[in-house]
Design goal:
Order of helices and strands: HHHHEHHEEHEEEHEH
Number of domains: 2
Number of helices: 9
Strand content: 5-15%
CATH superfamily of the largest domain: Reverse transcriptase/Diguanylate cyclase domain
Radius of gyration: 27 Å
Number of strands: 7
Shape: elongated
Helix content: 55-70%
CATH topology of the largest domain: Alpha-Beta Plaits
Length: 289
């Protein structure tokens, strides 16, 4: 699961920091005490040795290699000349600084990712959602392309919890999250909005197309029952409200419009998609003023 992988990466970052400080101490001991072996036997952060030059740690692995090379140069020269070369030492410390900055950036990235990930479903949660939605909205304004928001609510979810227990409810939530991620388009965004609600952001999509995409999603979900704790297969359906993000309407207002459309879908019998009514130009203009 994404959450466990992120935690593993944070543990790796913490281990890298400890090993780096120990290595840096050995290098400086060698530089300050010429009688000692000037080249530390172990490389910096051995735990990085298994990380390739792809993925989130690629830059850190390359900077580690560059730093170790400059360490070898400055320590070898110090042993040969019997003194510390200031220029070589400055190059070494510049490499140490670049490595340290990248290590902090990587750790910050994984801490933010963990904070913005729902631990149950592995979806992004609301913490980073508004930032993403505002960024997508600004992109849509610049390109004059439509973007829709949608709220989906699993129907009768309380009944699932009450009948089969909360572990079964969690299993249904995880199954729905995986289904939404797998069946929506690659560029659509999925968030756990709270409880049994999910929020979708559909770029380059007007309200009619969004309703079509999400109705197909809804029908596919209804055909895939979830196996709960006792082995029973429980049918799962959802109701969805869709709203177009229009100029003059804030992200919060678009979410509110999608929420009202969601309740309309529930009032109409659930297991359906409802669109928010289009906003008139006069209303949009009044908000923009």
């Amino acid at each position: 699961m994404q959450v466990e992988r992120t935690r593993d990466m944070l543990r790796l970052c913490e281990r890298v920091a400890v090993e780096h400080l120990a290595w840096l101490l050995r290098v400086h001991t060698a530089l300050m005490l010429p009688g000692e072996d000037p080249v530390p036997a172990e490389p910096d952060a051995p735990c990085l040795a298994t990380c390739g030059e792809d993925g989130e740690l690629a830059a850190l692995v390359r900077l580690r290699a560059a730093m170790q090379a400059t360490a070898g140069e400055v320590t070898t020269a110090a042993r040969r000349d019997g003194r510390l070369d200031p220029e070589r030492y400055r190059r070494f410390m510049a490499a140490v600084d670049a490595y340290g900055r990248e290590a902090r950036r990587v750790e910050t990235h994984f801490r933010r990712l963990l904070a913005e990930t729902d631990p149950l479903t592995g979806l992004h949660n609301r913490q980073g959602m508004m930032r993403d939605l505002k960024r997508e909205w600004m992109r849509a304004l610049r390109t004059d392309r439509p973007v829709c928001l949608a709220l989906a609510d699993l129907d009768h979810f309380k009944r699932i919890n009450d009948t089969w227990g909360h572990l079964s409810g969690d299993r249904v939530l995880c199954a729905a999250a995986r289904f939404f991620q797998r069946r929506l388009r690659p560029y659509d965004m999925v968030y756990r909005y709270g409880g049994e609600e999910f929020l979708f952001c559909l770029p380059d999509t007007d309200a009619d197309k969004a309703a079509h995409v999400l109705d197909r999603l809804r029908r596919a979900l209804a055909r895939l029952p979830v196996t709960v704790e006792n082995g029973e297969r429980v049918p799962v359906t959802c109701s969805i409200g869709v709203a177009l993000m229009v100029p003059g309407r804030t992200v919060h207002e678009a979410i509110g419009a999608a929420d009202r459309a969601l309740y309309a879908a529930k009032d109409e019998g659930r297991n359906r998609v409802a669109k928010a009514p289009p906003e008139t130009p006069a209303v949009a203009g009044a908000r923009s003023r």
